[in-house]
Amino acid sequence: MKKAVIFDLDGTLSDSIMSMKYSGDKTMAEFGYGPFSVQDYKYFVGDGAANLVKRALIKGGDTKLTHFEAAYARYREIFQANCMYQVKPYEGIPKLLEELKKRGMKIAVLSNKPHHATLDVIESLFGKDYFDVVQGQVDGVPIKPDPAGVFRILDRFGLTADEVLYMGDTATDMKTGKAAGAFTVGVLWGFRDRAELEEGHADAIIAQPLDLLKYCE
Hints:
The structure is a single chain. The chain has 9 helices and 8 strands. By secondary structure, it is α/β, with parallel strands linked by helices. The chain folds into 2 domains: 4-15 and 87-215, HAD superfamily/HAD-like (Rossmann fold); 17-82. Helix 2 crosses helix 3 and helix 3 (49-60) crosses helix 4. The longest helix has 15 residues, at 68-82. It is globular and about 55 Å long. This is HAD family hydrolase. InterPro entries: HAD-like_hydrolase_sf, HAD-like_sf, HAD-SF_hydro_IA, HAD_2, HAD_sf, PGP-like_dom2. Keywords: Hydrolase. One of its GO terms (cellular component) is cytosol.
């Protein structure tokens, strides 16, 4: 029986693409690049802020990443002030979380977004202490797809990998969950498509949040 669910944040719990596009475009404009499309940002995101900036710079033509250090520092400043720009939970997510809590299941967030921004988003959307564990990117812990973050959450819960579901919207998430030994559930309402989730060897793929419940038994 599953006892917990670990959620990715961006593209899984929160529809946050416009916050990253807004901050990314403001940053890139200072270096003479962009703006970029929403679809572009759906592929810039997912592997941490540093990789988002690198991908945007390369897309803009800075293939040698000459401006990376300055652009990365600037992006972090801009994003810190705008991390909630047009961010909202996906339809059906609040109901899913409510149902999981009714069943006595623990819920956690594991994100490659900086930890302070992860907390800001979660607390703004769902309230303080709504999730049992919230883990964003911190120094000393490798980002996904390294499973270190999953193992930290499992230790907090006192659970083994086969007792949790890992839910996300990218191949990076599927690789993270599988590397930890968890059952992985890919979602179709996020930033990537079914083909990517299948290539990431998702154990299950769902189209609506409440569809997760069938895998909680």
